[in-house]
Amino acid sequence: MSRRVLVLDTTLRDGEQVPGAKLNIYEKLEIAHQLKKLNVDIIEAGFPSSSKGDFDSVQRIAKEIIDGPMITALARAVKADIDAVYESIKYAQNPLIHIVLGTSAIHVEKKFNKSKESILEMGIDAVRYAKTLLPNVQYSTEDASRSDFEYLWKTIEQVVKAGATMINIPDTVGYAVPEEFGELINKINYRLKNLNDKVILSVHCHNDTGLATANTLIAVKNGATKVECTLNGIGERAGNAALEEVAVGLKLRSSYYNAHTNVVLKEIKTTSKLVSTLMGLDIQVNKAITGDNAFAHSSGIHQDGLLKSRDAYEIIRPEDVGVENMELILTARSGRHAFKDAISKIIHKNIENKDFENLFNNFLNLADLKKEVYTHDLYYLVDRYYFEQG
Ligand code: KIV
Ligand code: ZN
């Protein structure tokens, strides 16, 4: 039976770390309501100890977003941060404390200037403390993909014994490559199952070398049952794994991954647009699933194939992810088939062959002068042609 993979959306926390993308409380609430419609399992609403504004937004989301996703927020492994998270999410129906602490030598020695033992103690203490406040605690081993495996495992083992209910393996700087990351998750999953099979194994991948989605999907294939993502892949530096790519990837190849999410795919386009508009972050036109060109076809060969059978060049139905329809872009590379399809929406009568050929030639002459031929250009071409014919 296909495994259910939980989706944690961190658009409002990691996504909001994008320079210039700061949202006010009302904008955050609007996105949170939309994330509920998208049916994500967990909303990471912010980092409450960072500012009063962030604390207030997380608290408001925790109070308002009911009968839906779990609400979480981020804390470093210190009491003050954990208290801030607890105070902001305690009103949620299903709250989760998220603690992060590094496990790589770079983090332990260079960032904290501490020993591995004292960092491990800090993590265990943080989890024990969080457990006195709430039953659900996620522990993120920051920079896991650059950590010594035995120290990483020791950390996981100890924080699980201290009560962590979710273990999140971040590829914090996008260093991992899919095969290696898959093996890492496989090894952790195997040991974790023997230690405590109730604990959820999660991944959080960054996109510094464009591999965030691939690393997330290979992790699912190797046993991860929770993924952390953002809409449009926004996030720190080059961003995070894009929720729409992971959710659609799992849907499209569900038997390969033997896994599925409960994301309502039809809400993807609306959510993506809302995030882009409110954060003021344009989506690149060729962005998978949510870019303007993701379902636009411009070459004549493709347009001809699509008009015969959509399967020829369309593996995802645009309407399934909330995009109105596929689009045939008329350019100098378009063929007779696509042109005929477009003008049949303008001329509602039989077009004589001779007229069609003349119109098609006029279209190609115009297309050679422009990047794209729009519907208003077609009206002009058709009107002028029949006017000149008398
Ligand atoms: O990238 C990272 O390591 C994080 C953690 C807080 C999960 O964002
Ligand atoms: Zn991150």
Instruction: Extract low-pLDDT stretches.
Output: none
DSSP summary: helix tally: 15
Average pLDDT figure: 96
**Percentage of residues in helical conformation:** 40-55%
What is the radius of gyration computed over CA atoms, rounded to a whole number of angstroms?
25 Å
Based on CA inertia axes, which overall geometry fits?
elongated
Strand content: 5-15%
Bound molecules: 3-methyl-2-oxobutanoic acid, zinc ion
How many extended strands?
Answer: 12
| Helix and strand pattern | EEHEHEHEHHEHEHEHEHHEHEHEHHH
End-to-end CA span:
68 Å
In the sheet with the most strands, the strands line up as: 2-3-4-5-6-7-8-9
Structural class: alpha/beta
Please outline the major beta sheet: 8 strands, parallel, barrel
EC number: 2.3.3.13
Family: Belongs to the alpha-IPM synthase/homocitrate synthase family. LeuA type 1 subfamily.
Function: Catalyzes the condensation of the acetyl group of acetyl-CoA with 3-methyl-2-oxobutanoate (2-ketoisovalerate) to form 3-carboxy-3-hydroxy-4-methylpentanoate (2-isopropylmalate).
Subunit structure: Homodimer.
